[in-house]
Structures are given as structure tokens and as C-alpha cells.
Amino acid sequence: MNNINIMIVGVGGQGSILASKVIGSVALQNSFDIKMSEVHGMSQRGGSVVTSVKLGEKVHAPIIDRGEADIILAFEQLEALRWIEHLQPGGKMVVNTQKIEPVPVIIGDAEYTENVLEMLKENLQDVVVINALEKALQAGSKKVVNVVMLGVMASFLPFDRADWLQAVKENVPRDYLNKNTAAFDSGFNYVSQKGAEINC
Length: 200
What we know:
Elements: E1 4-11, H1 16-29, E2 33-36, E3 40-41, E4 48-56, E5 69-74, H2 77-82, E6 87-96, H3 103-106, H4 116-123, E7 126-130, H5 132-139, H6 145-154, H7 161-171, H8 177-188, H9 190-194
Parallel strand pairs: 1-5, 5-6, 6-7
Antiparallel strand pairs: 1-4, 2-4, 3-4
């Protein structure tokens, strides 16, 4: 398998650390090398967060520069736009439709950018847009948005669904396993259910 460079972008409190741990667990189950960056930016709730995950037969460094990401997993749509230049040509972006206003918008110093999803679709060849918050609530908790997003990504990575579910089990509290499993399956089945509509 060629190396896969994954960026997870969002805001503090959305579970990017857990997402990166699940990806790491799957890679280790399949005997692949993995490197993960520390979270950059303001990791407190509401601040911009980005995590880099690189996996493959041999990985030398965790940092993903502009134009190097194979996949960007964006938990919040404005963060997707912020990091779009890191996606390589032909790369895939998975975007949650959720909007979380950054501090400058909250205090009135800026306005939230409109038509973000339209801009992403115009500038990217391969983008999957999902209302992950809605899927998470259907699974039983808004806290499992990150696992819904992982499910979408897992559907086009070369690892078995069973490996992903085992990784989820290893990394989430036992009391929340059923909700997280439901969230993962909701995301995992999303692309096949939506078909070509996701790329319009």
C-alpha cells in the first residue's frame, strides 16, 4: 500500500484526537507504520484544530505540507475551506455541513463566509458532503459526529470494516460503544446510499 496522508480539521471539542487514534489503531492492526502530529492551533473548545496522520509501509515524518494530503476530513465547513490548499490534486475531501462560528465572528469582528460548500465543490474534483451532526443525533448523541465522519472515510480506505469497528471499540468508553458503532455504520454506508450525488 502506498502511504496515505490524512488531515483532520475542525474546532476544539469535535473529537479530532479520538479520530486520529482510531485511524492509528486500524493501521497498527494491519502492520502499517504510522506517524501523527500533535494538534496545532487553539485546541480549546471553539478554536481551530488540525491533526496530521500519515500511514503506510514506512513513514518518516508526520507533517503534511500544502498539496500533500490525500484526504482531508473536515468536521466543520469553514475549516475545510481554510485547509483546502493542503489537498493534493485528485485528493478527496469529506466535509461536515455543520457550522461553528469562530471567535472573531462571535464577537462581531468578522462574518462567517457564505457559500462555503459551493466553493468547495467548484474547486475540488472529489468532495463528499454530509450532515454528520444529523447522523450523529440519529445514532444517539451529537458527540459522535467524529465517528460518523470516520465511517465515511473508512468506506474508501483499504481496510476491513471489522478492523475499524475493533479500533472504535478500543478507543471509546464502553458505555458509548453502541452509539459509536451506529455512528460509524451510518457514515460507512453513506457513500453507497448517496451514489453519484455526493460528487455533484
